[in-house]
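Predict the 3D structure for this chain.
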Amino acid sequence: HGERGPMGAGPALRRFTWEEIGERSGRGPRPQERWLVIERKVYDISHFCRRHPGGSRVISHYAGQDATDPFIAFHLDKALVRKYMSPLLIGELAPDQPSFEPSKNKKLVEDFRELRATVEKMGLLNPNRTFFILCLFHILVLDVAAWLTIWYFGASTVPFLCSAVLLGIVQAQAGWLQHDFGHLSVFSKSKWNHWVHKFVIGHLKGAPASWWNHLHFQHHAKPNCFRKDPDVNMHPLFFALGKTLSVELGVQKKKFMPYNHQHKYFFIIGPPALVPLYFQWYIFYFVVQRKQWVDLAWMMSFYIRFFLTYLPLLGVKGILGLHLLVREGTFLKQHLNVTVFFSQLQATCNVHQSLFNDWFSGHLNFQIEHHLFPTMPRHNYWKVAPLVKSLCAKHGIEYQCKPLLTAFADIVHSLKDSGELWLDAYLHK
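Done. Predicted structure below.
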């Protein structure tokens, strides 16, 4: 129970070692217990993790670890969050214990925290709301232009395809904009970001905000960690990803697909198939199963608007074809996501900056900066990039940046290499 503190101060906090905290990771000898550390304070999240607003998996991924940096990175109103943390406080690190796990690079962590303080002083976490207003405006203009194209020129092949292209761009750009609000990058109040996020992803894209939050926050908590990052869930059912995992699959004699040909079938069963089939079905299942009725209402507003505006112009068959084509048309956005993702399996990398690349990727060509500062408004990534490069150079960390087409080509090379490693291990090990 700890010793008594100074007179009137109540009992002193219990003191723990990293060995004790590491045993409370949700695995190992104490699977029911989950502790984590924030700013040297130890918190018991064993029961709270189920009520965590960002999802139980996100916070549980940090059990047994120091979570100071992700806590600072993901929360806007830290004073408010700390009020909810008070009942979870069970102690603090003993004075002889380092502020984070002994296995971490002390100097690198300290330098990164110094960089974060510099970023805050420079105002790089402050959004330019005019930028985001213009982003929304150009999406709405393109949306209207898509409808006017068919209304004015008719439903023949060329206007139909032009409208589909415009709507595909709308879907992709709305995807980047909802990403901004989902990361709380636009408004100073979390709830304002959440409200607009529901509108953009629900009414403009027909998808649920709760589904995106559930998956994307896990991705940011543990990028590219197998069984923790949902973006890696394509392994091993469809693809063998990464050198180590591919060899492990081969050694275990597992073959769900002919992985040595995955660089070919990716373009068949990858985004073109998974987007319209999996995405369309699963998002409705998700909101109903989790009773996210507000998200469902926003999603339905998208479909009602889409069918009411295009049904008189195209008829039932035409509108279904347009909808499927638009969902397929977003494969460019999906291919870019996968491009960056596969590149990250080898080493996190950026794509070269240009006006087109910035627009086409929603500034996620600055993948490194975005993962270091997830709440930073995207229009500031280029400003912090030189500071991040300097930090990497100081610690001998490779800072990769590739041309867009090179990044696309790396998908094929990465898949081919992983497939060959799997085949070799499958046949000979």
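DSSP finds 18 helices and six strands in the chain.
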